[in-house]
Specification:
mainly alpha, Arc Repressor Mutant, subunit A
Length: 65
């Protein structure tokens, strides 16, 4: 996925890449040394910026890039 296409930050791209691999919020928090609430906030931001309502739509956008 192109970061400039959706104006995603570097952290959002990191989280997005982990989401696409099937990592849970807890897994992502551990890998990136963040709190689960922070990961959830970043996920919401990713969904808003990409106009996705779930991981399936996000994955479809990821595949197109």
């Amino acid at each position: 996925m192109k970061s400039d296409e959706f104006k995603l930050s570097n952290r959002e791209i990191e989280v997005c890449n982990l989401l696409i691999t099937g990592a849970s919020t807890t897994d992502i928090a551990k890998v990136l040394n963040l709190k689960c609430n922070t990961v959830s906030t970043i996920k919401k931001s990713i969904f808003k910026k990409t106009n996705s309502i779930n991981l399936i739509e996000l994955y479809e956008l990821y595949k197109k890039a």
